[in-house]
């Protein structure tokens, strides 16, 4: 692949501009490249987020919320009182805000950096990130921040691409991702480069065991990895322990 990933120091600016560019048709492209399956994966991730939560006044955080899929899904549960979506792309947030107005869902949309969350320790009853972690400059800092703002005994969830090793499926998926996805991006978004970045970004993203390690280093416990879509998608669940603050800060 001749595509050059941005250097660490330029990554944030590159990623922000890219999502600002593709925001208006992001949802359409997402449905096309995942054959609509991202909806099922997200529903599964939300089920893990809400498992065991006492919903009385519960508040949730969707980090790298993009156009707001997860935040809106959580808010559809009438018992989820406060839902916040955070992203640094103004245009993605604008789409999210329009969607929530249409659905009459009151979600708070905040522009900010996932690596320096503007919230106090122990604020949320759960935090989730889908397909965002890969885009951060410092993955560990992203998970550390989620663990910091989530209350003890509550969950941190990450849903992102995996590295399928299933014979026959893995090479077909790799071909689809590297060669077909950029064409879909070009047709639907008139932006081949954003959808060439997508498979390229996976080359530097850790395998599920590496994400588990990042969860451990953030002080999370009861960590589980749930492979989805034959391992091409990885769902990670971790719980903030009673005394996480002394171990991960
Ligand atoms: C692939 S999209 C995922 C959006 C949404 N979570 C979903 O699953 O459809 C990645 C999102 O992460 C956001 N993002 C990337 N780096 C970020 C950062 N450092 N802080 C906040 N948002 C960031 C991008 O702007 C983009 O909206």
Which CATH C-level class is it?
A: Alpha Beta
Going across the biggest sheet, name each strand in turn. 3-2-1-4-5-7-6
Q: What is the total domain count?
A: 1
* Radius of gyration, whole Å: 17 Å
Globally, the shape reads globular
From the structure provided, what is the oligomeric state, counting identical versus distinct chains? single chain
SS summary, helix count? 10
What portion of residues belong to β-strands? 15-25%
- At CATH level 3, the topology is Rossmann fold
CATH architecture: 3-Layer(aba) Sandwich
Describe the structure.
The chain is an alpha/beta fold. It has a single domain (8-163, 205-248), classed as Vaccinia Virus protein VP39 (Rossmann fold). The chain has helices at residues 8-22, 26-34, 38-50, 69-75, 90-102, 139-149, 169-189, 192-203, 208-217, 244-248, and strands at 58-63, 80-87, 108-111, 124-130, 150-161, 221-228, 233-239. α2 runs antiparallel to α7 (169-189), α3 (38-50) crosses α4 and α7 (169-189) packs antiparallel against α8. S-adenosylmethionine binds next to α1 and α4.
TL;DR of this structure?
The protein is of the alpha/beta class and 249 residues long.
Give the SSE layout.
Elements: H1 8-22, H2 26-34, H3 38-50, E1 58-63, H4 69-75, E2 80-87, H5 90-102, E3 108-111, E4 124-130, H6 139-149, E5 150-161, H7 169-189, H8 192-203, H9 208-217, E6 221-228, E7 233-239, H10 244-248
Parallel strand pairs: 1-2, 1-4, 2-3, 4-5
Antiparallel strand pairs: 5-7, 6-7
This protein binds S-adenosylmethionine.
S-adenosylmethionine is lined by residues 12, 15-16, 19, 30, 64-66, 69-70, 87-89, 92, 113-115, 130-132, 135-136.
């Amino acid at each position: 692949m001749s595509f050059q990933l941005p250097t660490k120091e330029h990554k944030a600016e590159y990623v922000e501009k890219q999502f600002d560019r593709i925001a208006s048709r992001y949802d359409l492209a997402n449905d096309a490249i995942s054959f609509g399956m991202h909806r099922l994966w997200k529903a599964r991730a939300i089920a893990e987020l809400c498992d065991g939560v006492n919903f009385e006044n519960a508040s949730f955080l969707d980090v790298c919320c993009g156009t707001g899929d997860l935040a809106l899904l959580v808010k559809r549960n009438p018992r989820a009182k406060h839902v916040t979506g955070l992203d640094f792309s103004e245009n993605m947030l604008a789409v999210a805000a329009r969607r929530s107005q249409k659905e009459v869902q009151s979600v708070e949309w905040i522009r900010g950096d996932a690596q320096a969350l503007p919230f106090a320790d122990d604020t949320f009853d759960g935090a989730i990130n889908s397909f965002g972690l890969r885009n951060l400059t410092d993955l560990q800092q992203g998970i550390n921040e989620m663990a910091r703002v989530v209350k003890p005994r509550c969950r941190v969830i990450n849903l992102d691409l995996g590295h399928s090793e299933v014979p026959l499926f893995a090479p077909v998926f790799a071909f689809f991702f590297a060669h077909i996805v950029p064409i879909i991006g070009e047709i639907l978004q008139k932006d081949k480069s954003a959808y060439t970045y997508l498979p390229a970004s996976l080359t530097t993203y850790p395998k599920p065991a590496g994400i588990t390690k990042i969860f451990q280093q953030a002080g999370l416990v009861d960590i589980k990895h749930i492979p989805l879509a034959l391992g091409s998608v990885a769902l990670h669940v971790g719980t903030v322990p009673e005394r996480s603050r002394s171990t991960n800060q």
